[in-house]
Design a protein that fits this description.
heterodimer, A: about 900 residues, alpha+beta, six-stranded mixed barrel, six-stranded mixed β-barrel, 27 helices, 22 strands, elongated, B: three-stranded antiparallel β-sheet, about 55% helix, globular
């Protein structure tokens, strides 16, 4: 250790160290001279012999310096200085190399930062590997469906009976009107049982969990998020025990979640925002229906129990819990379930960015090859002066390392500044853990990527150059060695680049094509000029009161100038996730055929809703304002419902019984509406039944408004009017149907945008690379071209010859790229909408674009070659 | 120098360090004197090349076995004097015994007669 410090000290005062060595050697020389003189030699001879005895001072100094222990470092310093000088002397090359590396590394880093935040970070809970998302599997007449939700009765049954689960928690997402002091807000909330936080292994920042066991009893306790605590209570510890009004009830704050807490999203696309409130699920369980499979559930497996064992145990327990047949549970790992929808597209994007970087590095490799050839003379001299192969390789690798280091730094800078916009365009439901950021993991990854890039770009040219010297020691000429082999190697690299570039372009093209297809789907409902918003009343309102209130509000909305029509609907279209799934039974002979009670999606709606959103009736009648509580119960179904449950028979006039109690009112089907893409543009219509809001009141819903003026201009008037009717009813999420559709395209747009950006850069790099290789080919052949022209070759034949060089590489590359795209197409199958991975239009378009740009890239050097002045070219030799 | 180079032996790898340390044992000395001392004491059998002497001295200094300081020589000139450090002394003792063992072993093998004689 002390010796290390001594060496470091020497390194710091190396100047004086060098001088000391000179002094020491001079003293030695003088002593030797004295000695020789003393032996009686004449002065001149004595001096000469003393000098000879000392040997080569240069190598003596070199060897002594080596003893100081920092030769490697010193040489590295030399190499870096030399590399920087070389880079500075060839600005266009350096700039191009650094910028393309920066773009490649920047893209890879930025995409990796997303992959890191979504796929790599562990879920922020205790031992997340033991957590499973409980989903239910139901068998309905041969078809097996998996829902991400279960019923509360099942959860409670499993909790009591299961031996393989350590604990099981249930929860449901909702939004509630909340007042704290004089602040009123509409907050995202979670109805959860006491077991949920225990199952996740999350400790509260302060206060305590709900006290009730399980979820059977109502309790007025609430746990708030760290954010709400900071905003509404200004971080005051006295918040614990503070009262707040939620959903019309008084609650006491009993706990605050830690700041780092993130709510699990087992179904990645459910709620975009983290909830601010956790309240006892028992308070809504009866209203929402304990038997209805709409509750999310997360369980922790007992140590040593596998998910498969637990699954079979739950399956055997289920018949004891619920009378419904054909139900069982599936227990996918929570982390896998959370990221299931985004894993493959994110990995695909990462792959694309790595390919982009590979193309950029290969360009640099090719340019270094070209330069190594022109630097043959320099290398030969350096070798003659005693440089070893290893030393030369190291020196040239230092150069590519300097390039990648600069490119990498610039790239991280680019990624760092791009992360913000990446977050903005990222789909709302991306299950990010923590924040998307350039954290140490990402930086480490980028460092490795840079090292790999430096090696890939620099190693082959370096080894090639250092070895080549030995075979051709006499080649001090400026252009001879390397020759055909090198040219062929460079050309194969370019062909591979073209192939890869086309592969990326085709992928991005397919994603874009699919996005265009998806966004051009006719949703089946009106997207222009229709505004929607959500509203809810505290659930303690009676049905009659709720019905009356909403009716008044709807009527008042209709009376606003500029409003053409308005209607009530539970969930505005497109609604990709939520729905009210309830069992029902068909009255009549079909009921016996199916055996179990089927479930379908229910919407509560009003007269004029279908007219407002432009959904046509296929047969029967629309709901009217006469379909009130006292009138005969009716229902409207969609075409899918009619087809699935009545087949070719006419559903009109048939009756169904809706709800969990089979003794519920019998409803007559009075109308059939056209199927729409109300579950998202890419989704098929599901069986849906529409109940009149007068006969099936809910505490929440939405109003759709068709306007004759710009929808945005009417929002404030709606707010003003409805607040005047009842200021305690929160209104939220004013959006047009068109904007809602746009939002559902978020993830596809994100993938297409990133893939497209990478692919365009890749094609640009490929073009530059091809240009470089063709130019180099021309520059090496300038004398030959000169001779041919002197012998009378016409300019256009020279032009054609060079063009052919480029075109040949492009054609080979495009062929390879098409083969590559077809081979890799399976990866894309699940990401594409109505576009086949081998879609000929996209492939032909991509191939055409690549051919066109590569042809343009080879035209420039070809034109230059054809303008060569034969005299200049010959003199050049 | 002495006109009969054939009688000289090449230094074995690693022995120069030992010789330098041994030379510095009685008193500090400068590079030239160390070389001459080795040459003289070995009756001119060992010739220390300047090209290996100075790298060796600096290497030993880097390891902390010898220390260095600039002092005036007996002729009044500034010279870099090397002296043995306690660490170097310890190392020398260890190396000496190792070397003696080695040299005895070589002796026994190369001259079996010596063994039978007594």
């Amino acid at each position: 250790m002390t010796s290390w410090f001594r060496k470091l000290g020497w390194l710091l005062r190396r100047r004086s160290k060098e001088k000391e060595l000179s002094d020491e050697l001079r003293f030695h020389l003088e002593e030797e001279l004295e000695r020789r003189k003393a032996e009686g030699l004449p002065a001149e001879q004595a001096r000469w012999m003393a000098r000879r005895d000392l040997g080569s001072v240069a190598s003596l100094r070199e060897d002594t310096r080596a003893a100081w222990g920092w030769t490697t470092l010193e040489q590295f310093g030399q190499d870096v200085r030399y590399a920087l000088r070389t880079m500075a002397s060839n600005r266009p090359f350096t700039l191009l190399a650094i910028v393309s590396l920066a773009l490649g590394i920047g893209a890879t880093t930025a995409i990796f930062s997303v992959v890191n935040a979504v796929l790599l970070r562990p879920l922020p809970y205790r031992a997340p590997a033991q957590l499973v998302a409980v989903s239910s599997v139901s068998r309905q007449g041969g078809t097996i469906r998996t829902y991400p939700t279960v019923s509360l009765n099942e959860v409670e049954g499993w909790r009591q009976l299961s031996g393989s689960l350590e604990s099981i928690g249930s929860f449901v997402f909702t939004a509630l009107p909340v007042s704290i002091g004089d602040q009123s807000m509409y907050l995202a909330a979670i109805g959860a049982d006491q077991e949920l936080l225990k199952t996740l292994g999350v400790d509260l920042a302060m206060g305590q969990n709900f006290s009730n066991a399980g979820s059977a009893h109502k309790e007025a306790s609430v746990i708030i998020s760290h954010k709400l605590w900071a905003e509404a209570f200004h971080g005051d510890p006295a918040a614990i025990g503070h009262a707040m009004v939620m959903d019309g009830q008084f609650y006491t704050v009993t706990g605050v979640l830690p700041a780092s807490f993130q709510f699990p999203r087992p179904d990645a696309s459910y709620f975009a925002e983290d909830p601010d409130i956790l309240f006892p699920v028992a308070n809504i369980a009866d209203n929402w229906g304990r038997d209805s499979a709409q509750w999310f559930s997360i369980a922790r497996l007992k140590a040593g129990t596998s998910a498969v064992q637990a699954e079979s145990e739950l399956k055997s327990l289920t018949p004891r819990i619920t009378k419904q047949d054909g139900l069982s549970a599936r227990l996918p790992a929570l982390d896998a379930e959370t990221t299931s929808a985004v894993r493959s597209p994110l990995l695909l994007l990462l792959g694309i960015s790595v390919m982009l970087l590979l193309i950029a590095c290969t360009n640099i490799m090719n340019l270094l090859f070209s330069r190594a050839t022109t630097r043959g003379r320099e290398m030969a001299i350096r070798k003659a002066a005693g440089a070893t192969n290893q030393r030369l390789v190291r020196q040239m690798l230092t150069e590519s390392a300097c390039l990648t280091a600069l490119g990498g730094m610039l790239g991280i800078g680019l990624a760092w500044s791009a992360v913000g916009s990446l977050v903005t365009i990222s789909p709302a439901h991306l299950p990010v853990i923590g924040r998307i950021s350039i954290d140490p993991t990402v930086t480490g990854f980028t460092f490795l990527v840079c090292a790999g890039a430096a090696l890939w770009a620099g190693l082959f040219p370096a080894v090639h150059t250092s070895l080549k010297q030995e075979n051709a020691p006499g080649s001090l000429g400026s252009r001879t060695f390397g020759g055909r082999m090198l040219a062929r190697f460079q050309q194969s690299l370019t062909v591979a680049q073209v192939a890869l570039g086309l592969g990326l372009l085709a992928t991005a093209g397919l994603l874009t094509h699919s996005l265009l297809r998806l966004s051009s789907v006719d949703p089946g409902f009106q997207t222009e000029g229709v505004l929607g918003f959500e509203l809810s009343v505290p659930s303690d309102h009676t049905s009659t009161r709720t019905s009356q209130l909403f009716h008044v509000m709807l009527e008042d909305t209709r009376s606003i100038p500029g409003v053409v029509s308005a209607g009530w609907i539970t969930n505005l279209p497109p609604e990709t996730r939520q729905g009210m799934f309830m069992p029902f039974s068909i009255v009549g002979p079909e009921a016996q055929a199916t055996g179990t009670r089927p479930r379908c999606n229910f919407q509560v709606t009003s007269e004029d809703y279908f007219k407002t959103v432009g959904v046509p009736l296929v047969k029967g009648r629309d709901l009217t304002s006469a379909d009130t509580a006292g009138a005969p119960p009716v229902v409207i179904v969609n075409e899918t419902f009619a087809r699935q449950y009545f087949g070719a028979l006419d559903p009109l006039g048939r009756s169904i019984v809706v709800g969990f109690d089979p003794k519920d009112a019998t409803r007559q089907i009075v109308g059939v509406i056209r199927d729409t893409h109300d579950r998202g543009l890419g989704a098929k219509s599901i069986p849906t039944a529409y109940l009149p809001y007068g006969q099936f009141p809910r505490w929440y819903g939405s109003i759709a408004v068709r306007t004759s003026v710009a929808p945005e201009t009417i929002i404030s008037e709606i707010r003003k009017r409805l607040t005047r009717i009842d200021s305690s009813v929160p209104l939220k999420d004013f959006t047009t149907i068109g904007a809602r559709i746009e939002k559902t395209l978020g993830s596809q747009r994100f993938y297409a945008l990133l893939a497209g950006a990478c692919a365009l850069m890749a094609v640009l790099f490929v073009t530059l690379g091809l240009y470089g290789v063709v130019s180099f080919w021309v520059s090496r052949r300038t004398p030959e071209i000169g001779v041919r022209m002197a012998l009378g070759a016409p300019r256009h034949s020279i032009l054609r010859g060079v063009l052919w060089q480029g075109l040949r590489m492009a054609l080979l590359g495009v062929t390879g790229g098409l083969a590559l795209s077809l081979a890799a197409s399976r990866i894309l199958t699940n990401l594409l909408f109505e576009v086949k991975p081998n879609d000929p239009t996209t492939l032909v378009f991509a191939a055409g674009l690549v051919l066109a740009v590569t042809l343009a890239a080879s035209y420039i050097p070809a034109w230059r070659a054809s303008r060569v002045d034969p005299m200049v070219a010959l003199r050049h030799e | 120098m002495s006109g009969k180079p054939t009688s000289r032996v090449e230094l074995l790898q690693g022995t120069l360090d030992l010789l330098i340390l041994q030379t510095l044992l009685p008193a500090p000395s400068h590079g030239h004197a160390v070389a001459k001392h080795i040459q003289r004491t070995s009756e001119d059998l060992l010739q220390v090349e300047t090209g290996s002497l100075y790298p060796a001295l600096h290497r030993l200094e880097a390891r902390g076995w010898i220390g260095a300081s600039w002092e005036l020589s007996d002729k009044g000139k500034r010279a870099k004097y090397y002296r043995l450090t306690p660490l170097g002394r310890k190392h020398l003792t260890a190396e000496q015994s190792k070397w003696q063992t080695f040299s005895r072993a070589m002796q026994l093998i190369l001259n079996p007669a010596d063994q039978e004689a007594p």
